[in-house]
Amino acid sequence: RSPAAAYLVSQLAASLDVQQRGEIVEKFDTALTDSYYLNGMQESVERERALQPGKPFPDFRVFDKEGKEYTLADFRGKYLFVEFSASWCGWCKLEIPYLKQVYDLTKGKKFYMFTINLDKERKLWEEDVKKESLPWPILSDLKAFDGGIAGEYNVSGIPVIFLIDPDGKIVTNKLRGEGMISFIEQLSL
After folding, report:
1. Which pLDDT score, from 0 to 100, does residue 30 have?
2. Most confidently modeled range among 39-43, 90-94, 122-126
3. Distances (CA, A) of 65 to 5, 37, 68, 126
4. Which residue from 1, 7, 18, 158 puts its CA 20 to 30 A from 68's CA?
5. Is 112 helix (H, G, I), strand (E, B) or coil?
6. Whole-model pTM?
7. What is the pLDDT of residues 151-166, one digit of tens each?
8. Which residues contact 183 (CB under 8 A, 6 or more apart)?
C-alpha cells in the first residue's frame, strides 16, 4: 500500500517480461494509482504490449544525414529491418558484422533496413556512420532517449532490432547475432 513498495517493485520487476510486469501492476491497490513508479511501470507495460509480434508497428518520422524524411508508409510492401543503435554503444558495435551479413543477404529483395541512431549530437552520428562504413541508411531524430522515437518504441537499452512485415506488423524484436542471420535466411523474400 505504500509508495515505497511501488518503487521497490518497479525496480525489481524491471527484468521481468511484459506479461509478468502487467500482472504485478494489476495486483496493486487502486489507492496507489497516483504513484509515479506504478504509473511509469504501467505505461512501460502498455508501450511494450503494443510492440509485440503481430501488432502494427507505430509510424515514425526520422531523417538521414542529408535531411530526407522517412516514415513507415515509405516501406509498405517490403520487410523492414530497424536497428536502434548509438555511436557510444559497444554492444551495438558487436552486431555490425551480423548486420552487414543481413544487408548482403537481402540486397535487391523486398527488404529494406536502416539504423536509427540515438545520439543527440549530429557530429557523433555523422562520425560514426563514416567510421563504420555502413552501406544502409543511418537515420535519427537527434533526441536520443529524451522522447521522440526511442520513447515511442520503448527503447531503453540498445541494440534493439525490429523486423516488420510487408503489411506493417511486427514480426519480432528479438534479433541478435547468428540467430538473426538464420531468421532472415528463413524468410520468403
Report:
1. 64
2. 90-94
3. 46, 37, 8, 7
4. 158
5. strand
6. 0.80
7. 888 888 899 999 999 9
8. 163, 172, 175
pLDDT at residue number 107: 93
Q: What are phi and psi of 178, to 5 degrees?
A: -60, -35
For the chain, what percentages of helix, strand and coil (3-state, to nearest 5) are there? 45, 15, 40
Helices 18-27 and 36-49, axial angle in degrees (round to 10):
140
Give the C-alpha separation, 21 to 13, whole Å.
6
Burial 127-146 (b: 16+ CB within 10 A, else e): ebbeebebebbbbbbbebee
14, pLDDT greater than 80: no
Q: How crowded is the C-beta side of 152, counted as CA atoms within 13 Å?
A: 15
Which residue is it, cell 521497490? 8
Helix (H, G, I), strand (E, B) or coil at 56: strand
